[in-house]
Amino acid sequence: MADLGRAALVVTLGLAVYSLVAGGIAARRNERRLAASARNALYCSFASTLVAAAVLATALVRHDFSFRYVAAHTNRHLPTAYTLSAFWGGQEGSLLLWLLVLTGYGALAVAINRRLLRDLTAWVVPVIGGIATFFSFVLVAVASPFDTQTAPFDGAGLTPSLQNPYMVAHPPMLYLGYVGLSVPFAFAAGALLSGRTDERWIVATRRWTLAAWAFLGLGQLLGAHWAYVEVGWGGYYAWDPVENAALMPWLAATAFLHSVMVQERKGMLKVWNMVLVALAFELSVFGTFLTRSGVVNSIHSFAKSSIGPWFLAFVVISSVFSLALIMWRLPLLKAKTKLESALSREAAFLYNNLLLVALCLTILWGVLFPIVTQLVKGETRTIGRPYYDFFLRTFGLPLLLLMGIGPLVAWRKTSLRALTRTLAWPIAAAAVTGIVLVVAGAGSSSPGLIAYTFSAFALATIAVELVRGTRATGSLFTLVSRNRRRYGGYVVHASVVLLAIGIAGSSAYSSSVERRLALGQSMTLAGYTLTNRGVTVDPKPNVTETRAHLDVTGRWRGSISSGDNQYVNPPEPSREVGIRTDWLRGEDLYVIVDESHAKTGVVFVQVLVKPLVNLIWVAGIVFLFGSMVALWPDAREQRRLVARLAPASP
Amino acid sequence: MLLVAAVVVLVALPFLREPIATDDRLDAPSDAEARRLTLVEERDRALAALKELEFDHRTGKVDDADYRELVGPLRQAAAVALRSLDPPQE
Fold it and tell me: Are the CB atoms for A414 and B62 separated by under 8 Å?
């Protein structure tokens, strides 16, 4: 079995190298049969990677502990779903998933576009082949999931915190996003290499970019919810380097999705779009490097990490390659038009891009800071939450405002009088919201108040857009179906507003208290009174569950339990929090029992009340809906594109 | 071995199907076709801009004065793009 997996990976490596070399020669010399052969090699690389993945999945399901990977990440007690999720629970498996998704995406994108964009796909094949060469080489030579050993009776098991339904979906979702960004990168590089820098690469990759971006966004929200319910510290985002690793490419891709519209409409920002596509791709590889190398958690683990230096070399080489390509083709990327007014849709997109990229680079600096201080000063210094929170407010709040203004500004030019008239309703909505909030006592946090006011403004903008658009076209359905990308985008804007409200509410207006409670003793927070009713210990075959039970009165009546699980295999603890959700208020009562004594019944408890936190998860559903609207195939648009591209591809 | 054999056959298939190709050039657009593609893009861009302006005018984002100022150059650009694509016969 392991031999088959290893052989399949070696075959994938050979095919990837062939796609890179033969594909490059074919595209350079304009040779049709060699290009088709390289393309077939790319298709086959997906098939051989699929064989390798099937071998690993089979070994996991069969509990074949002769595979080191299976023994290190599973045991016999693990339910099947978590056993399968161990595929991406470790370094080697997740790299195999990367390669599987890459070759699958690459083969599909090339197959779909090979007839209409023959000259472009001839160059896309070696680019994807190059990326696949790197990942298959790492899997064959550095971090193989098919290393074997004498099989122990049982495996080490999966870390308890990873035994959560969110962990079944969160990593593959992120990988679909990370790897998906390879497709627009490959087509952009193909356009530069072929010297055909027209819009075809953008048209070909529009939905790929959108899908990758949506997967990344959803993956992050699933991860945030996992952290909230499983890690048990009361928050959902800790600005951890690994979390930031997913946020950075998402921000770069968000900037690209906006700026690409300026290129489509006005033929501007061609260089900038190339830079953004390359940045998003490099950050996605860098994100995988951060997640898997352990370089940031401990600088010293860098030297120990087997894949770290290889990843770093790949990021450096591919970044230099991308920059050199862009510099080489600069004359072809000159814009034919200029920005006509600072008060126009394209200018708004430009401002939005500057803010998004500034936020992205600020986070990147925060992530790199420990590495830089280690290299320069020989000591590791990390940047804490206040740094990130400051820049999130600095760039995030203007972005929220811009999200409201942008859609109401016309392309090319808008006069101040037209803009003032259009913005009247949103400004009124924002003003009323601000006043009501101040009267209601929400003025205690200026950032929170500003976030709510800007959110009201942005939501009102979306409503105004929908109402006026519906009036102009006669029906909402016609309006949306004529421009799904735009109106899907507005739904996504609404989800970002919900996210902002949720973040502001749960951070700026949350309350928290820590107490030692003896048996029968009570405490009160934000209208909730909690009374300690004792501690229970429940031993089970692989876990001992300790729970403190608290009765709740006041704004809600019921009971809530929290404590910890101590697992036998792997011998690790897992904190179990108690959460009571009030869906009407979107609020959570969040209970963390840090320490409990079964004999005396004494507990040390931390209670948090987090207003509107659940809007963050609702935002995820709205985000998914908006992304689907924007992604939904449009037959009319497809016919137009075929008509446009057909003469160029006989 | 079976996997390797299947892969070799599939990769070599273009050469097995056509051991001697009459024309082995990739069907890349010629310079003239590439130029036409650029013109088609310019035409589509100009027409889309006109359509967008009409919509923005109807939804109140562009007032009458701005509309009058912007529509002329856009119509002209669309006409130029259309003419470039379909030049009058001599």
Answer: yes
